[in-house]
Specification:
Blueprint lengths: L1 H37 L3 H6 L1 E10 L5 E10 L2 H9 L1 H13 L8 H19 L5 E11 L1
Antiparallel strand pairs: 1-2, 2-3
Helix pairs in contact: 4-5
């Protein structure tokens, strides 16, 4: 009888250890998957981004700007839609730039504000996907 009780106890302890190990393994795998989803790789960014080639336009104060962008979307469908809407995005960019003055581009805050406005305005056009980030890839103010 005492032998049966010891065997039952040993089986229960082994089952608890196996369950705890399985739970720990699942938790570690989920955390690794969540980290991978949080930061897209360079290849994923390139696959979901489109280029807006250099544009030259007048600013509100009579000066002009040459600027180009890279638009990062949230998915392949978002990229396809953005490619089809590139003329609308260029229109939004010109519209926003034409309201700005050279002083609006001073410092990091000015460029960050422009990128946020463009992101908001372009997302207003999008139906299938969303713009995640707007990057300025070249910038000349004269």
């Amino acid at each position: 009888m005492k032998g049966n009780k010891a065997i039952k106890t040993m089986i229960i302890v082994l089952a608890v250890i196996a369950l705890a190990g399985t739970a720990a393994l699942v938790a570690v795998m989920k955390m690794g998957h969540a980290e991978k989803q949080g930061a897209p790789s360079a290849d994923e960014l390139a696959e979901r981004s489109i280029d807006i080639p250099e544009m030259t336009t007048n600013l509100a104060d009579g000066r002009y700007i040459k600027i180009s962008f890279k638009i990062e979307t949230d998915s392949d469908q978002g990229k396809e839609e953005a490619e089809k809407r590139d003329f609308q995005m260029k229109d939004v960019i010109i519209e926003q730039l034409s309201q700005m003055k050279a002083a609006d581009f001073k410092g990091k805050e000015g460029l960050t504000a422009l990128k946020e406005r463009l992101k908001r305005e372009i997302n207003g056009l999008m139906q299938e996907g969303r713009v995640e980030n707007v990057y300025i890839t070249s910038f000349i103010l004269q």
